[in-house]
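U., I forgot to send this yesterday:
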Amino acid sequence: MWIISGKPEPGHQMAVILCDKPRATLTAGTTIIPVGGSVTLTCSVQSSDGWKYEWFRGTQRTSEGQIRDQQNRDIRVSQGGIYRCRGTRGNPVYYTDRSDDVTIEITFSNKVVVKQRPNWPQIFRGETITLTCEVQEGGETTEWEYKWRGPRTPTQWTHNNDVTFSVSESSSEDYMCKSRRRDDSYSSTEWSESITLSASNKPRATVTAGTTIIPVGGSVTLTCSVQSSDGWKYEWFRRTQRPYEVQIRDQQNRDIRVSEGGIYRCRGTRGNPDYYTDKSDDATIEKTISSKVVVKQQPNWPQIFSGETITLTCEVQEGGETTEWEYKWRGPRTPTQWTHNNDVTFSVSESSSEDYMCKSRRRDDSYSSTEWSEAFTLSVSNKPRATVTAGTTIIPVGGSVTLTCSVQSSDGWKYEWFRRTQRPYEVQIRDQQNRDIRVSEGGIYRCRGTRGNPVYYTDISDDVTIEKTISNKVVVKQRPNWPQIFSGETITLTCEVQEGGETTEWEYKWRGPRTPTQWTHYNGWIFSVSESSSEDYMCKSRRRDDSYSSTEWSESITLSVSNKPRATLTAGTTIIPVGGSVTLTCSVQSSDGWKYEWFRRTQRTSEGQIRDQQNRDIRVSEGGIYSCRGTRGNPVYYTDRSDDVTIEITFSSKVVVKQRPNWPQIFSGETITLTCEVQEGGETTEWEYKWRGPRTPTQWTHYSGWIFSVSESSSEDYMCKSRRRDDSYSSTEWSESFTLSVSNKPRATLTAGTTIIPVGGSVTLTCTVQSSDGWKYEWFRRTQRTYEGQIRGQQNRDIRVSQGGIYRCRGTRGNPVYYTDISYDVTIEITFSNKVVVKQRPNWPQIFRGETITLTCEVQEGGKTTEWEYKWRGPRTLTQWTHNNDVTFSVSESSSGDYMCKSRRRDDSYSSTEWSESFTLSVSSLNKPTVTLQPSWIQIYSGETVTVRCEIQGGEGAQWRYEWRTAKLNTPPTSNEYRIIRTTESDSGGYSCRGRRDNFFSEWSDTITLTVSYKARPVLTVSPSWLSPGASVTLNCEVEHPSAGWHIYWYKAVPDLSEKSSSYELLPDGNRTANNSYIIHGQTHTAGYACRAGRGDPEYHTDHSQPKFVWSADVHSAASLTVSPDRVQHFTSDSVSLTCEGKFAEWRVRKFSEDGRLYSDCRRMTGSTCNINTSKSDIAVYWCESGSGEFSSAVNITVHDDGNGPILVSPVHPVTEGASVSLSCSLRTQKILSNVFFYHNDKLIENDPRGELKISAVSKSDEGFYKCQYSGRESAQSWMSVKVGVLCPESSSLPVWLIVGLACGISVFIIVLLSFYHFRKKKDSGFISPMTTTNHVVNQSEIHKHNCLDHGAGEIHDVTYSVIQLKHVGKKRKRHKSQEHTIYSEVKVGVEEKSSPAASNEELYSEVRLESSLEDIPTYAEINRHNKAKAKENQEDSPTYAQVNRHNKRASKNNQRH
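Result:
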């Protein structure tokens, strides 16, 4: 219990609530601690305060202990275990009950996987499988416990990592497992990914057969399958008519072929222990024998009828007579069982119509049978009815007729005949079985057909009545014999037998509308006719003692019956002139035999018959109502009475219609009186009056006047007539018509000369009612403060008023008074002199669409002391009056227009100022702002400077503040631009802006996207990759988006062995070139180059490009690379040594692989030698770099992995022209080969095999691709380069050697001269100039000329180099007058210093011309020095020439080589 103590304040009571002792509640955000993490536990005590908390933890190995130093509500734990807590508070300390346990587990990273054995994709109910929980990633060294989650989730922890069970349908589920170390119950892996087990019902094997009939001597294939599942073997079973089934031995395949008939089944089996499917359904296989069977029918009638009995026989043909057979039938109740009887006899019905087939089998072999016979079609018709036909049913006097009995179109019938008369029984006609018989007696005849055994009878035929004719003639007569008979009259028809018929007793029969009547003894037929009696009537007679002898029918008499007629009364005229009479005629259509009855009545006398009048025509001289009818016949027949005819007597008094009031125009709603006046002495007589008008006519009345309120429908002609009150059938003629025209109710029209009353003046108001007479007028006025009131004393059409207000009027006339509709309002206003002006705020000269402005209406000239109302006129014409003198609105283009206002005093709605002068508002359309980037390059790189600017087209005159929308913005929001000094990738994104003026905002601009990429790196390409003597090298530096203002910097790569890379030195004229290409003239050695680009202000620089190299194959003394063994091609796993040679101590070997990758070191470098165990990855270009920055010549190394194929042994370095060289072919297992074919540029060199290809004196024509062929297998091809031999000191040609010596001497002399002009040293050895971009292909085949003059060039560090051009005129082995060999040596000294105006470029040329003929050969050198310094240096070009003349009288063959 909770104890609450305390003392209440004086005068207060204290309520104590006692609650049960609480239990702390422990909650965890999650009960699984991730690897290296922790979870938060929270302890709470209901919704109460003041608690501290104690925490406890235990494991399965340790008892529960309190966690020290933890009294908070929330703690974080990183150990697994069972946790509890309780709350404490108060003094003495009060403890809650401990919370329930919460188990916390630690997760570790080992992954577990569930695997299934056997691993069939489909498992069936009853199979046994094993699921294994495997711990991966090092789990093999740990002892684990395992837990499973499946259909009975979860299992307990166990030491076994697998679970074996027999599956059932309830086993279909997802299975997962997890594991934990056996020594730690609270650390476990995550649950494995689920493996889904789908257990299907126990399957039934399915046997399918391509066909179930084994052809003679053949077999059929049976296939056993178990759904779409794997791993099955099959057991096969067969049985015959014996009662037991036998397994087929040695058959476990899915498909078997069988050649025996029988019933086959199979089942599948798999697994350990064996699992069996249900056996398949039976498949019955039958063996076919060749005997043919035929179905035959007895009797063999083509048409069989329901109820007849037939026999079908199954006959085995072709030797079937000697075998005992069983038979099987297929028909409507397909099929029958096998039977020993070969026929079947049955009574057919309609359902028997079908195809019938049979087959046979030997009685001793149930699964061998014939094929089914061809179908025999049985067509069964309904039981037939015999049909009797007679040529005629009337036997002429003394004659006979033929009767025929038939049964459809069928055969085999005999017939039975029957006859009866009025006697009650039928008699069979004896001795008559024929189809046709002749009869001469009257009577009723029938027949039927019979056939077969047992006898089959058709239904008996319908009756055929045969009558015998006698010669007496009969005639029909009618009484009375009127030509037209009417409905309701009674007539008699009589049948008379002529020519001696009087002495015989007859019976009579009639044919008419209800044809025919029965025979009767009476020859007369009396009946009352109707319309349905209209028809032809005939009769005949027969003697009373012979029912089947009669006369012929009489000729027909036609009876035509008309509807009951109405008499027609006609009068020549219905008006009897004074003292005269009229003739009345009564008629009944165009018929005979009538007499007539006449009738008369008046308003004072009832109708009475006029005596002694039965004639068709009578004359009468009295007024009244007359009618008549016709009569005839016995009993008397009456027509309907004729319609009434009223006869009136006329007298001569005249009547006239008059109207009061007699206005020419009458309006709807007015009341008028029409009066019927009898003239010429009518005043002394009492009259009745009758009117004819829109509701023609009225009844007779004693009043001569007709008063009514007119409407539009009253417009019509009106007439009247009179008669004396004591004589209803004497009257005057109708008066002449009086035309009444009624118009719609009119509305009064109020017009004012002007609606503005000038100060102190008045206006005239006029009220009119169309163009009509007799009106007076009522006038009305109201204001906003007074109700409408009538203006007294004013009934005139025109009045003058001097008060403002709303005026109306209406017209009145007549008695009772008739009022027009009241006129529409006319507002009269009084004008006063105050002037009003429209003003705009803010008063900007340019207003943009969407801005909000205020227009104010100001009353000037003392208007401040008055309370005013205001009214506006603008593009949305008139506003209502309002107390506000301003109007505020958001303008649009439609707001452009003129605005005016006026005002009035609030206490006088009809006094106002004039409209103000118009104020013109012009609204401009503000274009959407535009964001621009400066510079406007497509791609910006990290570190560049960018300016973002907001421009509003059309709003230049406005004072704008700007807002920006972007993810990163560090500038004030009111500026229209800001500058990003050093962009980073985080500055990438969209930028948009808008302008603001007060509370008006422009649209947001379209977003412009700034893309900042990581620092750019250009791509350098070099062309050609392999140097040729005297050829230029083109560098091409490509930067992404090259048009975006880039300048290019060009560098030479200087090896830096300490960094395993290169440093870069700026090339001459290589600073900020506009072109992206650079040309180096006269490059002779291997060299590396790089570039980078810059742009912007301040200038931004890209990273250096990857270095690119141009390779020289020539060996020079400063640095060289030798290869051992000395060949281009090598086998895989060959040991190859690359040795760097020269005067430098520190070396590295670099290679450029065929995939374009540059390698900076050798994996196995010993001193200056790099050792390679070759593989395909070693195919590359190799060269040496020294620690002092020198490059060696480059070589190509190729590696071939075809162990059985040959390689070509060819030198790696160029061969000097004139030297000898040997090429050979080698196998991995045999270094020296014979019977080798060699190819040069894919052409066979001599069609005979050899061991090697020797070229004793190599010439330029020997350069090209070589390959060898051995035993039908070819090597790869390699390029052999030939360098020019005439320039080399080793050349055996004396003139050339002499020329070279002279050139060398001159060069030394030139160098001495140049030493006076050189102020610094450079390592470049080329003439450099920018040019446009050229393409570049790396291929050693580009080497086609080499210059040996470069030997020792590396030892000269002056900026001195030469280009030697050799000119040869003439062809080999031909004499010419002269031959000229000119050798030019060009030396360029390049000095580029921005700060020194004295910098100059000096060019010196040395030309050696060799002329060879029978005359002297002059040799000379020309030296030109070009000074490109500024003019103030006063330096000129200084050409120097040296000439050497040598006389040679004899041509030499060696002089023809070059």
